[in-house]
Amino acid sequence: MNIRLLRHATLVIEINDKKLLIDPMLSPKGGLDPVPNCGNDIRIPMVELPINTGELTSILDEADAVVVTHLHRDHWDVAAQSLIGESKLIFCQPGDSDKISEQGFKNVQPISTRLDWEGISISRTNGQHGTGEIGKKMGPVSGFIFKYKERSIYLAGDTIWCDDVENALEEYKPDVTILNAGGAQFVTGDPITMTPDDIIKVYEKCPATKIIAVHMDTVNHCFIKRADLVKALSEKKLELKVLVPGDGEEVVW
Length: 253
Known about the structure:
By secondary structure, the chain is α/β, with parallel strands linked by helices.
């Protein structure tokens, strides 16, 4: 198994010799309008992909499937929709399959609870993309458990610490947990992705899991930067318990 962060929440997960492209946001730096109502007007993505056009083409060609946790544009943007072939297998949450099919994709597989694919068990988990009215406006989001033999990866998706995350950790006891950090937030309301405190709660709940924190330094409403997270972890002496990879970095185990 190995995991490579490309940028933000876009990853390549390799498991059982199959490559999964996760939540592709492939626009060039500044190619998208900023997220509104967050106190600044910085265009996104705020950084370029850490790969050239040839490398990106290879990644897209070699991907056996794409996983879209939800349809927000920082996880499934217009560039990804234009660059990914219409016949590519796309896994998604049930409520998004019609929209992805309408975008021209011919091989869309919603996952309601669980399915087996190429020797890999894929289970869908729930999440909470914020609290109160903002959480409702963000809509439904999903995470996924990828299990091969006795090893598993929990991709939590865009969620804060909540009962859904706690239950997933209890049920699946994943070897690796990928968390969308950044403390994304609007001018009003609570964060809609994980803060350092949320990540520490994940560790306290399941100290055996290897945590990888992504979803930072790319979108204008993610106010907690990598440096902020590392500082918060260091203050709790947890800097060795949570990996905070840079763009393009690969984690192999």
